[in-house]
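Lab notebook, bench 4. Still working through the backlog of constructs that have no structural model yet. Next entry is a single chain of 188 residues. Request: give me the structure tokens for it.
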Amino acid sequence: MYTTLNMIRDCHPCREGWSTLLEFLGKTGPDDDRLSLLTILESNGFEDAVWCLRAVPGYDREKRAFMAECVRKLEQFFSSSVYSDFLLKLEAYGAGESSEEEFVKAQKQIAAHQAQHDDEDDEDDGCSLIDAPTDYLVKWAFAGNNQGRDSGVMVWHTMWHTMSSVNDRLCDEEREVLNSKLIQLIGS
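Model written out:
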């Protein structure tokens, strides 16, 4: 997978990650030269490479399949089996085993479940470790079917935060597996 520095800049990267990448490339500013995400992975690491997926056009199913696999690592923290069921549907869609219509139906079901339980969550003053990843999973999956730049930003913003949550909770071996999966994805 390839992007450009201009495409990355248009997504508003953090200052530190942007500076690291420019320094690694020996550049002082953005350009339209093709840039492999493998190079970004080497320069900036796993989380920034995942963040930069937003600057790669296309590959929607592949990105969703990768995200589903990453979120699967957090399944033990899910507060309801509804999220696990949705994750199966997300994986099937990402693998091309279900239609867009089936995926949209699953999105609506998970959004309805989330809306039904929002009031209960508001009453809970504690911060559960799964709150953010579950919320990001729902928002990411729901936003992915909308049109326009704002929904795209939401998709990748939530994916990046989910990846941060995943990365914080995994052992080195699990992180290495996801890193290998990312290399497979972006090497295509």
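Notes after review: The chain has two domains: 2-55, 60-170. Strands lie at 2-3, 35-36. Flag for follow-up if needed.
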